[in-house]
Fold these 2 entries.
Entry 1:
Amino acid sequence: MSDYRVLPGPEHFLPPAAASMGIRLPNPGEAHINGVIAPEEKAYEEAARQLLMARVPTIFPGPLVLWAWNEKAAKKATAIRHLFNTLKECVQTGQKPMLIPMPDYRPKYPKINPEVEINPNHPNLTIWHNKIDCCIFVGVHCHQANLSLKIIRGGTSCYTIAMCAQAGHEDAMLSFRDASVDKIMRLAETVKRLKGTVQPRLSTAKSGASN
Amino acid sequence: MSKERIQISEDLYDIMPSDYQDLVKNATYGKEDRGWKDIGTSKELIEQHSLCAGCPESMAFRYILASLPNPEDTVMVGSTGCTSLVFPMVAVHNIHSLFGNQNAIASGLKRALSVRFPDRVKDVVVLAGDGATVDIGLDMTLQAWFRQEKFTTICFDNELYANTGGQESGLMQKGFVAKMAPVGKLFDKVRLPEIARESGCHYVVNCTVSKPSLVEKVIRNAVHIAREIGPTYLQLYTPCILEIGKNSMEGLQEMRDSEKPAERFAYKEYVSEPAKQLLAELAAKDKERKAAAKQLAGQASA
């Protein structure tokens, strides 16, 4: 087993792909936390804890859920909205949950508006601008999620969570696999259950993403 | 992609940037008689572009995107050059190819789409500069025409390599001196429209983009003929105002000057016999459709 741990950055300009450092993907029913395979139950708790602890916990829905390709995508969008609403209900004063879309992957130049969207080619701009210190990717195609997760780990101190519909992401600090409406709803339930039990990082002088 | 799929999930609609909301609500996907006149009243399929102020290429892009008959089921293949700066801003599927192999990419793409979607009309349109079409990619361009591949090739002819500083290209006019070609071009402009005709293209047009209605007509003709019969080629003059020493507002006049009867971009069109027949059939259908719509409108107002 690798000694490497996938931790919040900034790691360095070009962080290694976690897979190249020996981090492996979880099997069905498992997740990984910082690169260590863990039962899914534990991952729900940890993800909820990180979201409740963050000053600006943010959900980044991608094109697979933003666009109503089919009924399943629309249902996932509903679940994501529910997770966001739950998060808003459960945070304390001073915390600012956000829901920022990644509508597509076009490399927009000269730059995107980081207040309204995130782009996989320079996701750090949105993280920096909004001082996001914990984020969850959902509905982003794997290759673009990998790119974003690596850039975020390289240049920011943001904690990254991947709710992946495929086999998960080594480059996230916490990754679920086989994401479904049920799993998103379960994460929302866990957030609700842990409400009030987690101390937010509000008093930390240097909270939020850094570069 | 069917236009019915271009819908934002209801629960996340409010967080989508306004340009995407606008695309879904006000773009002309699926509109049968879409054209350049929609510009200004509906959402264009190009949000913004990073070309120079007054660049005729940006005008060409806007007219072409407004005129594509089937944008939701069209894939555009681009190549390296100023056009590749625009494609990221375009709401039509597109692929960036290596410099010069755009017609080879489009050949494979068109064939794959025909196999994957046998019951759906899928158009492929190549859009590349003169360097990619005539110099570096001439082999791929010609071979696609020889093989009678069913897609449209559009060449934005600015008569030099513009975004690398003004080197000589095959489509540069004889004697022209550019920043990176100080001796002046020693041989004539390559006569690609004639070569296209001889290589098997069924519809060939050489013109400027000064008249949007003309651009709309030739784009629609080229796409419809390519869809049903075989390869089509459009050579559109989109002068690089920077490299020929003009100001931002002088691009349109430059095109008008270059399309006068004796000039090199005087309108020239070649239509093969099968293509003529197809265009006649399409015109008849269009006439019938308009008459039916008029009758319907008359009944509604009565």
Entry 2:
Amino acid sequence: MRNLVFAILAGLVGALVLHIVIILTLPFFASDDVYSRISSLPANDRFLPASAVSAEVTSTELVSDTPYSTTYLCRFVLADAPIHLQAEGAVPFWSLAVFDRRSNELFSMNDRTSEGGGMNVTLANPLQMIRLREGLPPNLAGSVLVETDVTDGYVLMRTVVPDQTMQAQANDFLSSATCREEPLAD
Amino acid sequence: MIGALRIPFFIGLALAIAFSGGIAATKIALDAEDPFDVLEIGPWVANPLAQTAGANPYDKARRALGDGSGLGQAEGLVFRATTDTSGAPLLASCAYLVAGQVPASRVWIMRLTGLSGEISHAEPPFSRALHSASVLRAPDGAFEIRLGAEARSGNWLFLSGDGPFGIEFLLFDTPAAGNFGLIDLEMPEIERQDCADA
């Protein structure tokens, strides 16, 4: 009888340990997280509509868009040069969130916190940031500089379009959006 | 004979409990609503930290399973409700009245979801969502939104079928996202009206 109680207690303790181990290690073995699912997309290119990407690379939706909001995404690899995120145009609302590959938010902003209404953000690692401070390339003038240690991740850009008449403008804004490397002069 | 098998039996029992219990507890914890770090206003629940590095391990595990595209902190905040104000689960066979105000935000979108979070697809011409610029309001800014299978005057969203559902408010650019009790936040009441005979 004592052995039975002992076996059950040992089992419960084991269950607890297993639970904690699974929860804590899931992010490291995940194959179904957003970054893994978009890892076949070209990095440092342009923003692509999340709904189209969802249909192409995965069976489940990456982003649950509403009838009035649209999300575009871009995968980035921050290695040789800073990444310049840029979009021009006027939409009623846009917002931007930069995530690392484990979906931790690194940076987010919306149109009210940007200069002039367009999107202009530069991601740089600490070394690149030192060089940017020494002399900002003319292309990056007015850009919001974001220093980060991560080497890869993804950017989500959302717009809210409450009215169909603004959809064309919003599409222009979204499809103009780029997330390219901006080489630093030697 | 039985005596010789006692020790292996107890080891096997302990292992069986450990594995089945551990896996079941993990699955239940990941499927359930997150009880940690949430902002609760009546039936409405939001998780401002879910996408940040400061999120709890359960949120991080959920993100590993695909839930990695929520709103960033400067983008906004999502409030979800799966019960009405009295605490009864929301049922698609009933009609509801959502009345009150939402926290200050530039624009908000309200939509209906299935319980697991997927969007319920109302067939056109019925809209699946409402937004802040399309809602009729009282002079003080309060609104009343009716959910139900029968068209109503004022603000109305089509709701039909049976089984549980959820309501989501996506508040874009809201101070509520960085708020833990500094501002008195207000969310609408959800009141059950008549139900279809089941």
